[in-house]
Amino acid sequence: MIKTAILLATEHMSILREEDVVPFRYRVKECAAGIKMGLVNQTYLITAASELARNMLKYADGGIVLIETIERDGETGIRLMFKDQGPGIEDVGLALKDGFSTGGSLGVGLPGAKRLVNEFEIASEPGKGTSVTIIRWANG
Amino acid sequence: MERIPILRMGQFLLVTIQIDLYDRLALDLAADLVKTASKTGARGILIDISAVDIVDSFMGRILSNIGAMAKLIAAETVVVGMQPAVAITLVELGLPLNGIHTALNVEKGMALLRSKIAGIAGETDPNND
Predict the structure, then answer these.
(1) What architecture is domain A6-137?
(2) How far is B23 from chain A (nearest CA, A)?
(3) ipTM rounded to 2 decimals
């Protein structure tokens, strides 16, 4: 379970078309640069964000992302919460395995995104939707 | 409709990606490249991604696909100028960029393409992949 943190800023963006992914990535990059996150960590975060946004489009026809700047134990970071109302994931454990895909892709997205962030949480209920929360700390 | 321009330089096709690619644009680029390579009989494709901040699994797959498709019509593909942060992220993501060669910059990429083609033409390079 992801621990609570102090919320410094919050906004949300809708990801409903593939064209929405680019401005979304751009906004995440701006937020990450705003807390002086290093370039490699920024790239990790944006890549993970891109994978998850793409998943939402592909499997759930899109959804909403909360972009938050947070602070916990003196560390600042970016927290992204992806929420969709798609079909959900039947076996989350399996979906997190490298090389597993129901969508005919490489099966890199979800496990890869998990590796690229400091904290990762996924909750899914078949028929109701999926929510994924990731955190990348500025100096994590 | 927006499109990434493809430049022809002798036997090679040159593409510089200067904007953040959304999916449709990337797919169109792959199709355009292979069509153009086939039409012009190009022997090599050079893709400059030095201005690209992020390569996710979709983009990586497109690059691999371009390499694989080009190979089928006897052209080699070189991706040049990958930013270090992008390279680090790709490895962490676990994305194998199969089917493409890489070089540090356009100049080295061109040299690599020339050597690949010379190798194939003379059939002196049995280790070529």
Answers:
(1) 2-Layer Sandwich (3.30)
(2) 7
(3) 0.86
